[in-house]
């Protein structure tokens, strides 16, 4: 995957915050849904793209700009040459490797602090490493964690709203510490439950066994419980596996799919085929 320094940021646009709301409960890590609007008709953005947020920030290396990418989290809308796009932002903090002090994530805190009417500078759009297959009989295994749900939410809405006669199966595996932290799939925001009636769609949730203790989410176990169904999907060539989210989402996946395939050797062969055909793709941050 390309590094941030590889992205062309010469094309820049100003967007206005039209809506910002907290999706996560108050006693959990803050995740916000932010809707921005661009008046420049030259800006075009699709569901299989990301865009950059650019802000002035001088670091210890002499850089004066800070650039971060965000996936489109909903179907972009256009009216009177104005484009609206949705992003998910988790307020991040990290421990400095040298000083040991806790630092605020630059872009995430900047965005979470924006109010309606504020302007932000964006770049792009840029292609995501994965996209909705053109073949309507393709199977999709989508594996997300946290804000990694963003591109998959856009994909699912696009498929069931804009693509006619989709025949392939879609399995969405989505991990969170608890049911309250399932973005767009909880009692307040039940966006993705709109598609539960679709015969080709299933959403499978994975939670931490002890969320209050912050035990890791058992995504691996949840995948293994669907071993027969996934193995059947992997028997055909037009099955895609997309992984999105924090790097922790990758933990245990190879072990889980080795269980699905019956052995580590069989999985290594099948995964190599998927990678070669650009059908195993990761979007990790």
Write up what this structure looks like.
- The protein is α/β, with parallel strands linked by helices and 285 residues long.
- The protein has two domains: 4-126, Beta Barrel (Elongation Factor Tu (Ef-tu), domain 3); 139-284, Rossmann fold (3-Layer(aba) Sandwich), CATH 3.40.50.80.
- 20% of the residues lie in helices and 33% in strands.
- The protein has a seven-stranded antiparallel beta sheet with strand order 4-3-9-1-2-6-5. Strands 12-11-10-13-14 form a five-stranded parallel beta sheet, with helices on both faces.
- Strand 5 (77-79) and strand 6 (82-90) form a beta hairpin.
- Helix 5 (253-261) packs across helix 6.
- The chain starts with 11 loop residues before the first strand and ends with a strand.
Q: Which tags fit this structure?
A:
20% helix; globular; 285 residues; seven-stranded antiparallel sheet; Rossmann fold; 6 helices; Elongation Factor Tu (Ef-tu), domain 3; single chain; 14 strands; alpha/beta; five-stranded parallel sheet
Question: Which helices and strands appear, and what pairs or packs with what?
Answer:
Layout lengths: L11 E11 L8 E8 L10 E8 L8 E7 L5 E3 L2 E9 L2 E3 L6 E3 L1 H7 L6 E9 L11 E7 L3 H14 L7 E7 L24 E7 L11 H6 L2 H8 L4 E7 L7 H9 L2 H13 L3 E5 L1
Kindly identify the CATH topology of the largest domain. Rossmann fold
Described by strand count, sense and barrel closure, the largest sheet is: 7 strands, antiparallel
Radius of gyration: 19 Å
Please identify the top-level CATH class of the largest domain.
Answer: Alpha Beta
Kindly state the percentage of residues in helix.
10-25%
CATH architect. name of the largest domain = 3-Layer(aba) Sandwich
Question: With helices defined by DSSP (H or I, 4 residues minimum), what is the helix count?
Answer: 6
Could you give the order of strands across the largest sheet? 4-3-9-1-2-6-5
Mean pLDDT across residues: 85
Strand proportion, as a percent range, falls in 25-35%
Number of extended strands:
14
**Structural class estimated from helices and strands:** alpha/beta
Question: Can you tell me the CATH superfamily of the largest domain?
Answer: Nucleotide-binding domain of ferredoxin-NADP reductase (FNR) module
Oligomeric state of shown chains: single chain
Could you say how many structural domains there are in total? Answer: 2
Distance between the termini: 11 Å
Low-confidence parts, pLDDT < 50 over ≥5 residues?
Answer: 208-216
Give the H and E element order.
Answer: EEEEEEEEHEEHEEHHEHHE
State the shape. Answer: globular
């Amino acid at each position: 995957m390309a590094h941030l320094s590889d992205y062309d940021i010469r094309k820049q646009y100003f967007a206005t915050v039209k809506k910002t709301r907290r999706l996560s409960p108050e006693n959990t890590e803050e995740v916000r849904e932010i809707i921005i609007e661009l008046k420049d008709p030259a800006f075009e953005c699709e569901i299989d793209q990301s865009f950059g947020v650019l802000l002035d920030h001088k670091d210890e290396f002499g850089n004066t700009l800070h650039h971060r990418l965000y996936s489109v989290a909903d179907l972009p809308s256009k009216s009177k040459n104005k484009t609206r796009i949705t992003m998910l932002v988790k307020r991040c903090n990290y421990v400095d490797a040298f000083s040991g002090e806790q630092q605020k994530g630059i872009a995430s805190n900047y965005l979470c602090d924006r109010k309606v009417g504020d302007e932000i500078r964006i770049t792009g759009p840029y292609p995501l490493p994965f996209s909705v297959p053109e073949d309507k009989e393709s199977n999709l295994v989508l594996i997300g964690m946290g804000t990694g749900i963003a591109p998959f939410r856009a994909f699912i809405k696009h498929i069931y709203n804009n693509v006619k006669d989709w025949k392939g199966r879609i399995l969405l595996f989505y991990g969170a510490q608890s049911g309250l932290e399932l973005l767009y799939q909880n009692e307040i925001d039940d966006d993705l439950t709109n598609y539960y009636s679709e015969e080709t769609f299933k959403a499978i949730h994975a939670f931490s066994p002890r969320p209050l203790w912050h035990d890791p989410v058992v995504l691996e176990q949840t995948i293994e419980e669907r071993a027969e169904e996934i193995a059947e999907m992997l028997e055909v060539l037009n099955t895609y596996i997309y992984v999105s989210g924090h790097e922790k989402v990758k933990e245990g996946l190879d072990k889980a799919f080795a269980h699905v395939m019956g052995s580590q050797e069989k999985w290594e062969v099948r995964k190599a085929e998927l990678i070669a055909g650009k059908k195993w793709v990761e979007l990790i941050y």
